[in-house]
C-alpha cells in the first residue's frame, strides 16, 4: 500500500464546492474519477479542507491510499491529462502511510481579493469582489491586525458551524495592494491574507466582509476586539461573496514526505 500526496490548484467557478456531493459536479468528484481511470480502483481522497461553491484554490493538498505501481514522477502528467482544464495537479509525492492532508496540516493561508475601482476587471471578475468606491486601506490594515493571536472566533463564523470549539490561532494577518489603474487614494486591488492553524466555516469570508465595513467607515479598526468578545455572529459584518476567496497554501512540518 502507498500513500500519495498531491497539491492541486483549481478554479471553483463551475463546481458545487470541493467536497463530493450526490448528483453535483465537485472538485473532489473530478479528482477521484481521474484516479479511478488511472488505477481502476474506487478511491476516496482526503483533503486539507473543504472550499465552498465558487471558492478557488492555489495550493489545496490531498492524499489517498493505493496499491498502484505508477511511478511517482508520472502522476502529475497522468492526472492532468484526465482532469478538466480548471483543475491542475501541481505536485505529487510519496507520503508516510499515516500522513493525512487534513489532520497533519500545521498552517493554512487564505487570500481574499477586493477590487476597489470604479469599473470591474472583465478578465478577473470571477476571482475578486468588485467594490466601486474607494476604501480606507490603512484602517483595514489596523483592523485585520487585531485578529492575530489565539481567539474565540464565534463572531466570525456561521451559526451552522458544527465545531466543538471556535478557538483558533491567527499567526499573521496582513494587507497587500496592487495598483489597478487609478491613482486615487483608497483604490487598487486589495488582498487580505490570513495565516492560521485552522479556519471555521465561512470565517475568512465574514472577516473580509467585516474589513470592508472598516474600509467604508461603518466600523472602526478598534471595534474588532469588542466584536470578538461578543461571541455573536450579528456583531460582525456581512459575509463576502465566495468568488473572491482563494485557498493560498497549506503547510506541514516536513514529515509529510518520504
TrEMBL record:
<dbReference type="InterPro" id="IPR001406">
    <property type="entry name" value="PsdUridine_synth_TruA"/>
</dbReference>
<keyword id="KW-0819">tRNA processing</keyword>
<dbReference type="GO" id="GO:0003723">
    <property type="term" value="F:RNA binding"/>
</dbReference>
<feature type="binding site">
    <location>
        <position position="110"/>
    </location>
    <ligand>
        <name>substrate</name>
    </ligand>
</feature>
<dbReference type="InterPro" id="IPR020103">
    <property type="entry name" value="PsdUridine_synth_cat_dom_sf"/>
</dbReference>
<dbReference type="GO" id="GO:0031119">
    <property type="term" value="P:tRNA pseudouridine synthesis"/>
</dbReference>
<dbReference type="InterPro" id="IPR020095">
    <property type="entry name" value="PsdUridine_synth_TruA_C"/>
</dbReference>
<feature type="domain" description="Pseudouridine synthase I TruA alpha/beta">
    <location>
        <begin position="145"/>
        <end position="253"/>
    </location>
</feature>
<dbReference type="Pfam" id="PF01416">
    <property type="entry name" value="PseudoU_synth_1"/>
</dbReference>
<comment type="similarity">
    <text>Belongs to the tRNA pseudouridine synthase TruA family.</text>
</comment>
<dbReference type="InterPro" id="IPR020094">
    <property type="entry name" value="TruA/RsuA/RluB/E/F_N"/>
</dbReference>
<comment type="function">
    <text>Formation of pseudouridine at positions 38, 39 and 40 in the anticodon stem and loop of transfer RNAs.</text>
</comment>
<comment type="subunit">
    <text>Homodimer.</text>
</comment>
<feature type="domain" description="Pseudouridine synthase I TruA alpha/beta">
    <location>
        <begin position="8"/>
        <end position="104"/>
    </location>
</feature>
<protein>
    <recommendedName>
        <fullName>tRNA pseudouridine synthase A</fullName>
        <ecNumber>5.4.99.12</ecNumber>
    </recommendedName>
</protein>
<dbReference type="InterPro" id="IPR020097">
    <property type="entry name" value="PsdUridine_synth_TruA_a/b_dom"/>
</dbReference>
<keyword id="KW-0413">Isomerase</keyword>
<feature type="active site" description="Nucleophile">
    <location>
        <position position="52"/>
    </location>
</feature>
<dbReference type="GO" id="GO:0160147">
    <property type="term" value="F:tRNA pseudouridine(38-40) synthase activity"/>
</dbReference>
Amino acid at each position: 500500500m502507498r500513500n500519495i500526496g498531491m497539491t492541486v490548484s483549481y478554479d471553483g467557478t463551475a463546481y458545487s464546492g470541493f467536497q463530493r456531493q450526490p448528483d453535483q459536479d465537485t472538485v473532489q468528484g473530478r479528482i477521484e474519477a481521474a484516479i479511478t481511470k488511472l488505477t481502476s480502483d474506487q478511491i476516496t481522497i482526503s483533503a486539507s479542507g473543504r472550499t465552498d461553491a465558487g471558492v478557488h484554490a492555489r495550493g489545496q493538498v490531498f492524499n489517498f491510499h493505493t496499491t498502484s505501481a505508477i511511478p511517482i514522477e508520472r502522476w502529475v502528467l497522468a492526472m492532468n491529462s484526465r482532469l478538466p482544464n480548471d483543475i491542475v495537479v501541481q505536485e505529487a509525492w510519496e507520503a508516510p502511510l499515516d500522513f493525512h492532508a487534513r489532520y497533519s496540516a500545521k498552517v493554512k493561508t487564505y487570500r481574499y481579493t477586493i477590487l476597489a475601482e470604479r469599473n470591474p476587471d472583465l478578465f478577473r471578475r470571477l476571482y475578486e469582489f468588485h467594490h466601486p468606491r474607494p476604501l480606507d486601506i490603512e484602517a483595514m490594515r489596523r483592523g485585520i491586525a487585531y485578529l492575530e493571536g489565539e481567539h474565540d472566533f464565534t463572531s466570525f463564523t456561521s451559526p451552522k458551524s458544527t465545531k466543538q470549539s471556535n478557538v483558533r490561532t491567527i499567526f499573521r494577518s496582513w494587507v497587500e495592494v496592487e495598483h489597478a489603474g487609478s491613482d486615487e487614494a483608497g483604490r487598487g486591488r486589495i488582498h487580505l491574507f490570513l495565516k492560521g492553524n485552522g479556519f471555521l466555516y465561512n470565517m475568512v469570508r465574514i472577516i473580509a466582509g467585516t474589513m470592508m465595513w472598516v474600509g467604508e467607515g461603518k466600523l472602526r479598526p478598534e471595534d474588532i476586539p469588542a466584536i470578538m468578545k461578543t461571541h455573536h455572529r450579528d456583531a460582525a459584518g456581512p459575509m463576502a461573496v465566495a468568488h473572491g476567496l482563494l485557498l493560498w497554501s497549506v503547510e506541514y512540518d516536513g514529515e509529510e514526505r518520504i
